[in-house]
Amino acid sequence: MQLKKTVMIALLASGPSVWAQAPVEDINDPNRRNNAGAGLEAGIYQQLQQLQQEIMALRGTVEEQGHQLRQLKQQSLDRYIDMDRRLSSVAGGAAAAAPSATDALPPAAAPATSTAPADQQSTEAPAPASTDNGLTGKPSVDYAQAYSLVKARQYTDAITAFEAYVKAYPSERYTPNAWYWLGELYVAISPQNLEASSAAFQKLLADYPENGKVPAAMYKLATVYFLQDDKDKAREMLTHVIDRYGNTGNSAVIKAREFLRKNY
Asked: What is the mean predicted confidence (pLDDT) over 59-74?
């Protein structure tokens, strides 16, 4: 008892400084809870702001990549058209490729003997006569003329020429090629006509199922479906190309596999 009294006397003698060393905090104080809640809300708000900024940055990146992808698609189409032209000149009159201009044109007739003076003889062969639709009535000549517009990158005029060709010559040797080029050209023009492109490729596949252009037409039709946002149908067509022509070494198979790898 005497010890307790001694301790109490010592504490009282030490003054208020001893009690100040251990401040007491009331957990039921509403100001304490409000301050803690405000700090938490501020932290969450800061995180949300940061996430919004990151989403905006990602959205800008996606839009830029989409623009670059569209440019690459157009460049790929241009390269493909040029490649097909080069292959056509090598393949000659093979059914799987477009003919070169020399293959498409008929052989030149032997020059007629003329008794006119030399200075009155014409040195130029007469141009083939054309009808109202621009056709000469000779399928090989008309195809070569339409194809020359593709080589000159006059795509709108080439469409007009090939449309006239398939209407006038529904069963000629180069009609499948004409339908194929219509499918290509409807995508090459601006604005694109994807519906017409799809219809042209489908016409080739339906009417000429054994033609050498079928694998390429199937692949191109798949890319048109993809541009139309019908990705399931595009993948189905690409898979069909691979399953049907996988062992033939056809370039459409390689392109189909590459397209699936990059886009699915």
From this structure: 76
